[in-house]
Amino acid sequence: MSNARDLHADIDHILIDAAQLQTRINEIAADITQTYEGEEDLLFICVLKGGYMFLSDLSKAIARPHTIDFMGISSYGSGTQSSGAVQIIMDLKQPIVGRNVLIVEDIIDSGRTLDYMRRNLLARNPKSLRICSLLNKPSRREIDVKVEYLGFDIPDEFVVGYGLDFDELYRNLPFIAVLKPEVFAHLFKG
Ligand code: IMP
Ligand code: MG
Prior knowledge:
Layout: E1 11-16, H1 18-35, E2 43-48, H2 52-61, E3 67-75, E4 86-90, E5 100-108, H3 112-122, E6 128-136, E7 149-153, E8 159-160, E9 176-179
Parallel strand pairs: 2-3, 2-5, 5-6, 6-7
Antiparallel strand pairs: 1-9, 3-4, 8-9
């Protein structure tokens, strides 16, 4: 594998390590379990692609019955800034009318994605709708969105790992990290 790129060599520093992630996920899982106590139905909707790893660990940490579905959302733009135009690129397999729905997302930044999702899913008449986001960049918020479960507040830095990508890479890193500045350098070349 001499031509394989070393993802770890691109990392400037780790912001949240794997143990911190698991500890916080267990706390969130306990909160969620308590909120839905006595409710028969619970559906997690994972926002692809970034939410896949968080959904996997969160789902394992929750013993009560629940089902999962996926939604593909694209906020068009390149590099580290989204353009703000949100689009559904893969919709749910089933209606959610009358169901307890929990959106599982990797990060809330401007708030546009989750604002769009909240309005879109509410229009489908679920019994309840809540949002769980692993990461939050409060300083970047443009739209105020209610998020019931938040993992970590982070500074205004572009992060990768644990599902989050830069240019589709780094999702497989088991922690949240900041990349070296030179990794972004090609974006600013003509
Ligand atoms: P929002 O719509 O601006 O809140 O952006 C949310 C989406 O932008 C997330 O679902 C991510 O896909 C992406 N995003 C925002 N910040 C980061 C980051 O620091 N790293 C990787 N993806 C990010
Ligand atoms: Mg995302």
